[in-house]
């Protein structure tokens, strides 16, 4: 296997027509190549007729280049941006619900949330919902911590990352 054949984590961003069936068509292209998407986030842009997809996956150079070419040929795709080797800003959202907590545990959750720089979005006497908008690796650390102490009393939901190319020349 040559250096170009190595599988690595890839980031791609697509501007697509904001229309019914576009998401299914794009995700079908990836599944047709037997790629498992690590994350896929779609949202409307400043133009309501255009959506932006941020996709994370693992793959080799050759197949990834083929996918980018196919995406560029797709009528619904307006623009393809390969963020794999570019400086980007990316964040994902993570919600963690902890339940059946004692008072001392609830207090510890509030303290640990402050240390991690995450928000307590909701709570009652025995439950807390945490919200973390950080990088994927930072959210991995947050999850590891809370799983260690509350795994049987925890529910976690992650959204895919969103990304935008850096504008600072100092990042390049």
Brief digest:
The chain is an alpha+beta fold and 172 residues long.
Give me some keywords for this one:
5-stranded antiparallel β-sheet, 4 helices, 31% helix, alpha+beta, 172 residues, 9 strands, Alpha-Beta Plaits, 4-stranded antiparallel β-sheet
What does this entry look like structurally?
With 172 residues, this protein is of the alpha+beta class. It folds into two domains: 84 residues, ACT domain (Alpha-Beta Plaits); 76 residues, Alpha-Beta Plaits (2-Layer Sandwich). Helices cover 31% and strands 38% of the residues. The strands form two sheets. Strands 5, 6, 7, 8 and 9 form a five-stranded antiparallel sheet that branches. It has a four-stranded antiparallel sheet with strand order 2-3-1-4, with helices on one face. The mean pLDDT is 90.
Q: What kind of sheet is the major sheet?
A: 5 strands, antiparallel
Helix run count: 4
The fold-level CATH name of the largest domain is Alpha-Beta Plaits
CATH class of the largest domain: Alpha Beta
Task: State the separation between the terminal residues, measured CA to CA.
Answer: 29 Å
Rounded to the nearest angstrom, the radius of gyration is 19 Å
User: What is the helix content?
Assistant: 25-40%
Q: Write the CATH architecture name of the largest domain.
A: 2-Layer Sandwich
The helix-and-strand class reads: alpha+beta
List the secondary-structure elements in sequence, H or E: EHEEHEEHEEHEE
């Amino acid at each position: 296997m040559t250096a170009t054949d190595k599988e690595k984590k890839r980031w791609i961003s697509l501007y697509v027509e904001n229309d019914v069936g576009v998401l299914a068509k794009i995700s079908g292209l990836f599944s047709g190549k037997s790629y498992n998407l690590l994350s896929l986030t779609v949202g409307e842009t400043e133009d309501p007729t255009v959506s932006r997809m941020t996709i994370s996956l693992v793959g080799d150079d050759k197949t990834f280049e083929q996918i980018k070419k196919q995406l560029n040929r797709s009528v619904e795709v307006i623009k393809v941006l390969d963020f794999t080797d570019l400086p980007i800003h990316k964040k994902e959202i993570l919600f963690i619900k902890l339940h059946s907590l004692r008072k001392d545990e609830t207090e510890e959750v509030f303290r640990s949330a402050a240390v991690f720089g995450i928000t307590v979005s909701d709570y009652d006497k025995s439950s807390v919902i945490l919200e973390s908008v950080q990088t994927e690796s930072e959210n991995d650390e947050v999850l590891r911590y809370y799983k260690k102490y509350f795994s049987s009393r925890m529910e976690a939901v992650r959204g895919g990352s969103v990304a935008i190319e850096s504008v600072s020349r100092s990042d390049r």
